[in-house]
Amino acid sequence: MKSSRGRDLKKISLIGAGNIGTILAYNLSRKHLGNILMVDIIEGLAEGKCLDLAQSFPVENINTTVEGSSDISKIEGSSVVIITAGIARKPGMSRDDLIETNLSIMKNIGNAIKKYASSAFVICVTNPLDAMVWSLKQISGLKSNMITGMAGILDSARFRFFLSQKLNISVENIQTLVLGGHGDTMVPLLDYTSVSGIPIKNLIDMKKIEKKDIDQIVSRTRNGGGEIVALMKNSSAFFSPACSAIEMLESYLLDQKKILPCSACLNGEYGVKDLFVGVPVIIGKNGVEEIIELKLSSESQKQFTKSVQSVSDLVKKCKKLLV
Ligand code: APR
Fold first, then answer.
1. Residue 32 designated active-site
2. Which of 93, 141, 198, 202 is the most buried (most CB within 10 A)?
3. Residues 6+ away with beta carbon under 8 Å from 278
4. Distance, CA 283 to ligand 1 centroid (Å)?
5. Residue 8 carries which DSSP code?
């Protein structure tokens, strides 16, 4: 199907019509990136949300289609699948506490992808992220370049936001990378953090920011999701995860070849094999087209190794639960 702007519209499937799925559907419809299918296990939920969303299209002259269903076989023919199905954490829970429930959900979804959408580019958002995306790959049999997890863009965005507040400088001027697992052990890379090209270390020398402030920001970034859960109590973050997943989807569908920190399947890069961990990758029309191996400082390398270990421990749990 062609859009009114003459572009061929691809099919984008969103599995999960909860908080993140809803923001995804809304934002995607405004970006004219494709026809949207939203699936949720709760009968009527995706249908109702999509009917409401479709009724907003005449107001803003939007020419895409959106369909809701509880039938996962409808993902057939998808170019992209974004998975947000699963439970979110409550105050006091870590992402890792979600593992058993969300793994059983990933089993159903992974099998459906294998059957109906084996050539799609799959972006997983469900937590615990790196272990869920690893499990999805095992179950779906997707190639390593066609499945990835959303975490690093979100963690980097949190880090950028906090730095921007502290420095009183536009978020647009702040570049950074947060690598490793999407958990308390994530690794904000100070060596790769700069403000309009000025390395953060120079800003310390220039007395624009103190090292202790940066340390506090690193720790607030690591707990960024938990801080929001503690405030909202009954749900976890949804605006920023949805925007971050859309950046990955756009880079794939529009072949933008952006360098983005994503949870990618490592095959020896960074000395890690058969695990999904957050690293910078290039996303283009072939999915994850390249994994960029950065030189890490000895401190960052130590933190990265610790983070990989915690992902590896979770994957071991998944392996046990999957047999
Ligand atoms: N198939 C489809 N949908 C499912 C399935 C399934 N097998 N199992 C659960 N769901 C749906 C739920 O019915 C719910 O509507 O997934 C949706 C999840 O929505 P929310 O509870 O609002 O969770 P959300 O905030 O969107 O987060 C989803 O992303 O960031 C992570 O930690 C977060 O794991 C959580 C996931």
1. no
2. 93
3. 130, 149, 151, 152, 155, 178, 179, 180, 181, 182, 186, 261, 262, 263, 264
4. 25
5. B
Residue holding tokens 């954490």? 89
Pairing verdict, β 121-124 and 80-83:
parallel
Does residue 167 contact residue 182 with C-beta atoms inside 8 Å?
Answer: no
pLDDT < 50 positions in the chain: 4
| DSSP, res 180 | B
Tell the residue nearest (CA) to atom 6 of ligand 1: 41
Q: Could you tell me if the CB of 253 is within 6 A of ligand 1?
A: no
Residues 6+ apart with CB under 8 A from 18: 40, 84, 85, 88, 238
Predicted structure pTM score: 0.97
Tokens for 183, please give them.
């958990």
C-alpha Rg value of the chain to the nearest Å: 19
Looking from the CA of residue 241, the nearest atom of ligand 1 is: 30
| Alpha-carbon separation of residue 225 from 131, 228, 237 (angstroms) | 17, 5, 6
For residue 7, what pLDDT is reported? Answer: 57
Please give the structure tokens belonging to residue 228.
Answer: 């929001």
pLDDT of residue 282: 98
Active-site hit among 74, 95, 182, 222:
182
Instruction: Report CA(108)–ligand 1 centroid distance (Å).
Output: 13
CA atoms within 13 A on the CB side of 83: 32
